[in-house]
């Protein structure tokens, strides 16, 4: 049986280590720029907007064996929040023990208790073990939808254009 609990500040190094392990699994080992300080600030700072639950080791005093990191989203159609699961990871040696299902069950319980409309996440199209697991719990793919991302140079360019447009509008209004 999995012991799921809300992450504590002491869990940050283990969570960050598993984020790195997940990046290796997803064939992006150099993509993680997150640090322990950054993760701590997002989870436990003055205004946390990101949340995590962990799976304690079945061995007393052992390292945590999995985590779910999530944040709230909002459905304009439903008029309520949902949970976006950013990462779900269980260490390879602990897989098959029901830990992933227990983490998802915890998020589903939170969603139901708070009146949220959904729990959703993305999965790489080649990740058949995870896809099969998600389908086994009743999750369905969102056919017809594609995930888009704006980052790096494109994000900076578009953001600079918005800043220049806002500055121009502010300057134009100042002379009126």
UniProtKB/TrEMBL annotation:
SUPFAM superfamilies: Acyl-CoA N-acyltransferases (Nat)
InterPro entries per UniProt: Acyl_CoA_acyltransferase, Diverse_Substrate_AcTransf, GNAT_dom
GO MF term set: N-acetyltransferase activity
CDD domains reported in the protein's UniProt record: NAT_SF
Keyword Acyltransferase: yes
Top-rank taxon: Bacteria
Coiled-coil stretches: none
Keyword Acetylation: no
N-acetyltransferase domain location: 2-167
Region forming the signal peptide: none
One of the Pfam families matching this protein, by short name: Acetyltransf_1
Assigned keywords, A-Z: Acyltransferase, Transferase
Protein family: Belongs to the acetyltransferase family.
Record protein name field: GNAT family N-acetyltransferase
Source lineage: Bacteria, Bacillati, Actinomycetota, Actinomycetes, Micrococcales
């Amino acid at each position: 049986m999995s012991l799921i609990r809300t992450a504590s500040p002491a869990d940050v190094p283990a969570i960050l280590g598993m984020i790195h392990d997940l990046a290796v699994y997803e064939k992006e080992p150099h993509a993680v720029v997150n640090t322990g300080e950054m993760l701590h600030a997002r989870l436990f700072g003055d205004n946390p907007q990101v949340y995590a639950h962990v799976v304690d080791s079945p061995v007393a005093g052992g390292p945590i064996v999995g985590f779910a990191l999530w944040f709230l989203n909002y459905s304009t159609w439903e008029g309520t929040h949902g949970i976006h699961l950013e990462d779900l990871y269980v260490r390879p040696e602990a897989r098959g023990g029901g830990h992933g299902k227990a983490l998802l069950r915890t998020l589903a319980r939170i969603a139901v208790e708070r009146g949220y409309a959904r729990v959703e996440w993305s999965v790489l199209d080649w990740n058949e073990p995870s896809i099969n697991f998600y389908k086994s719990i009743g999750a369905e793919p969102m056919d017809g939808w594609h995930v888009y991302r704006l980052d790096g140079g494109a994000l900076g360019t578009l953001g600079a254009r918005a800043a220049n447009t806002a500055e121009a509008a502010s300057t134009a209004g100042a002379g009126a």
